[in-house]
Structure formats: C-alpha cells, structure tokens
Amino acid sequence: MKTKGLLILFFSVLELACASPGFGPNGFLVTQTKIGIFGTGEKSQKFGKACVFSLLGLFAYGDGSIENAKRKANINIVEEINWETISLFGIYSSLCVEAGGK
C-alpha cells in the first residue's frame, strides 16, 4: 500500500510539473527536438542562438528573439531559422531560436 501511494505521488508531481517548451512533440519524461521554421535553401555561414528557459513552469527568463540571435553571430542577412527545445521531467525546459545567415 505504501508503494502504491508513493507511485501515485510521483506521477502526480510529474503531471503538475508544467515546464514545457510548448512547440513540437513533447515527451512525458524527456524532450529534445530541433524544428526548421524558415529557410531559403542557401548554405548559412554563421549561426547565432538565443534561448529562453523555464523552471517548474513557474519561472521563465531569457531573450529568445531572432534579433538577439542575429546580434550574437553578427548576422546581417537571415537565411534560416530553427527552434531547439529541451524539457527534462517537466522541471526544466528551454526553447532556443537559432538564426543562420551571412
């Protein structure tokens, strides 16, 4: 009976932990995806990444804008944009915007 109660508590906590990147497929325990959003077909020479993070679905912080990603890599012309997501046990998640270009 004690084991059953602990299992119910464990899965209840997992269900309540709401840190999700919000895009693409989400795994119950772990998510790691890369999704292409935009591309011109040209081969990118530089890549910049800008991320936002969430803890327990309670705290979120960061600057995940395309402008921030461009600035980090000194990109003038954007040729592709990708999203990268990571989520671990619903406790931590991140969404990164990766800009590629010249």
TrEMBL record:
Pfam (any one): TRL
Keywords: Signal
Residues spanning the signal sequence: 1-19
Protein's name in the database: TRL-like family protein
